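Please, structure for the following, as tokens.
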Amino acid sequence: MMRKFFAFWTLAATVSALAQTPVTFDDVFRSRAFSAKGVYGLRSMEDGLHYSRQTSNGIEKFDFATGESQGVLVANGAAKDASGASLPLGNYTWTAGEQKVIIEDDTQPIYRHSYTAKVYVYDLAGQATTLVSPEAIQNPVLNPDGDRIAWVHDNNVYYRSLAGSKPMRVTSDGVKNAVINGAPDWVYEEEFGFHVALSWSPNGRYLAYYRFDERGVTEFSMDMYGTDLYPEPYVFKYPKAGEANSLVTIWVYDTQTGKTVEATQGQTYEYVPRTHWSPKNELYLSLLNRHQDSLRLVSYVPSTGQAKQVFLETDPAYTDADHNLTFLKDGRFVWMSDRSGYNHVYLVDPSKNKLTALTSGAYEITELYGVDEANGHIYYQAADASPANRTVYRGSLKGGKAKALSSPFGWNGATFSTTYANYILNHSDANTPARISLHDSKGKEIRVLEDNAELVNRMKDFALSPKTFFTLEATNGQRLPAWEIKPVNFDASKKYPVLMFLYGGPGRQQVTDNFGGRDYFWYQMLANEGYWVVCVDNRGTGGQGRDFTKCTYLQLGKYETEDQIAAAKALAQLPNVDPGRIGIWGWSYGGFMAAHCITQGSDVFKAAISVAPVTNWRFYDNIYTERYMRTPAENAEGYDANSPLNHASKLTGNYLLIHGTGDDNVHVQNSMRLAEELIQNNKEFDYMVYPDKNHDIYGGMTRIHLYTKMTKFWRENL
């Protein structure tokens, strides 16, 4: 059942939309009429009172409080390569003391986040430019003193002094598709979310790095068609569910002795998702078992070679790889955990084996921004007003009541200066683009950086139906959050088709009170054409505590599908919904869900679109999949019963399947296998393949073509 305030919003939407311009496809995708502005490129400087930013003059210094320029630090054209050509200043990093700047040029992507580049060091005082290495390198990392830099080239680790010494080679066994030093393999980068796998100790003496021995990992190959006579095979290591991983070890190089020692020697683990240096020059290792239900935090002391377990995090289902470990000077650390049933912030004293909750309650802490130890504060974001909202808080390292630094309404996110003296607040809501403002540490607004007034005023000229929120009932009776965009000029005497959108995967939310960007306006275009757009967050999604999220453990797709079908049936009972015209679409996990819904919910769904879907979790990478499903050998029924491949015979509605052939994440193999199952069951469907496009399916006219295809499909089939 929907909440009663639902009808009020309907009336408001009807009145506001009269005599306004309909949103068109060209407005959304070609004219960029609805592009919102942001604030980009601000980098807090060490004093926390100033920031640097690239301008038309070069890298310029500004006062946080006033926004006034304090002068140009690096002028355009000042940094030059060996040929005398000016280096672009867009991708830069300050050294300690901000007397030198690292500049990257000619970047070339490797995977989603990793890349190679030509790396230079520009000295502000001497106005001289130094090329770090003649080759394109990856992962340049400065030591804390800013006088040494380490990097990776051809899977090996190097370092040198910025004073002009020749590079020192730390490793020599790196080989493509065999051994990687200082950078993660594909699955670590994708699922553990980092691409820099080397780090300096606080005293600058030790250099820690990952070593990936991926010789036992099976290769995956896909053709890149390009424009040449023959396709080019793209081969990389990809461990699928149940298959062998890289053998991962952590090594520490001593720059004083030239010796390298393995920090993980004698430890039992499958994954090392994080490493952290403590202020005491101890290397903390997060060691995770293959089931990902037990994470051990182990401290390793390079000077003695001693290692000991200092903390343990377990969960009957799975535990997160990243707990936002943040050290205090005395060796205590801040840790995030959902052990209470909701994600909260804790202070851990390993010397006393003591854990103290700094936040508590039946709500989620969604992000830890940082710890201001000097003033005894922690800064974080919470979904306490509702799962759909976000509020920024300043709490205490002693616990107790926290101070809100933003309104509880809408979606609030913050970026803090180095010293936490200032923060930039990004606020939006479901129907209002971002307002970005600068605040002091107490929450007082200093100035507005961007209010998107131009877009806000432009939106008034168009027929827009407000996105509003309500709840629906899951199959187990639980309330599910939802949003809707009703047809423009809603007529209570008519019945309308419903288009549902979903993602539905573990811990992810789509029902949030923040501005939706391009897709928001695409839905507005559809609302102008008479479509009723709805999104429901099923069980398994985020923002509502451990039990809500982890109830799908070992059965990905089961409860999520049941909830989406139940939601569609509830919508079908509304007096203004045409029950014979309900469609659903999603991308990635959402594509997986859309395939389930159109097959298992054939009695309620008329049409569906799956973009880049997983179709059997056996095909996806093992770190993500086994976290939620364990291995296929342990949970064969969970894999197969919840695979769209095994429900293809149930398809009766209209179905569009879309995939990029260059998708290194969710391989086109998934869609090819589903297509084959549909063909062998003599099921008609539409299939669109984008040559060489990755999981995001973009480039040139690709996105316009994709959304044109989907729009036409809805017009013809829903």
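The radius of gyration is 27 Å. The chain is about 15% helix and 35% strand.
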